[in-house]
Amino acid sequence: MKNRHSARAHRQLVPTDARSAGVSGAFALQVITEGSAHSAEPSFPGENAVPLWIKRRVLLLNVTYEPLTALPARRAVVLMTCGKADTVHEDPQAPVVHSEQWAVQVPSVIRLRNYVRVPYRARVPMTRAALMHRDRFRCAYCGAKAETVDHVVPRSRGGEHSWENCVACCAPCNHRKADKLLSELGWTLRASLVPPSGPHWRLLASTKDLHPSWMPYLGEGAA
């Protein structure tokens, strides 16, 4: 009998039609995670408990290595199974997903085989995650570890909720500043407030946890 542990080595996946009857748009994945070789885990959320590997996120790159989004692991496996994407970085800590016809270790980064045109968007939406990345998780006033978001010109005094008026801030500075202006406190900002640009910032704006292998593709904001 072939040793199941040899399945750790990635190989080209072969689509399976297992349980595909009645499923529109995609075939079902019947997987067996390593350590439970004789018990099939549910293919879809809602069929008993959701397997932990499905909750993992995988960075999807365009064929040009431009970051596109962070996919659920199950979707990433489907793209690889259909021959639409290839592994760029493996994750030694990730589980191995098995079926009767193939086996693959859930990767951390995959790359599309064909180019996908992304509509141009002029401005990156401001979210708490993206703001923290822009300010490198440091207080804009004192440089300590940031825990909150502060409006430089308080909203009670007409300040906007925008890239040009919001900063990462530590709790003590936020409490001390309250609804005052910087000129009233004699404070200055450690850096200019500018909106970030680049396709990777959209991913940073929507993703909280970043895998270390993603960093080379996400620019300075992820550092």
UniProtKB/TrEMBL annotation:
SMART domains: HNHc. GO terms for molecular function: endonuclease activity. It holds the Pfam family HNH_5. The keyword Hydrolase applies. The keyword Phosphoprotein does not apply. CDD domains: HNHc. Residues 126-175 form the HNH nuclease domain. InterPro entries: HNH_5 (IPR029471), HNH_nuc (IPR003615), NA-targeting_endonuclease (IPR052892). Keywords: Endonuclease, Hydrolase, Nuclease. This is HNH endonuclease. The lineage of its organism: Bacteria, Bacillati, Actinomycetota, Actinomycetes, Mycobacteriales.
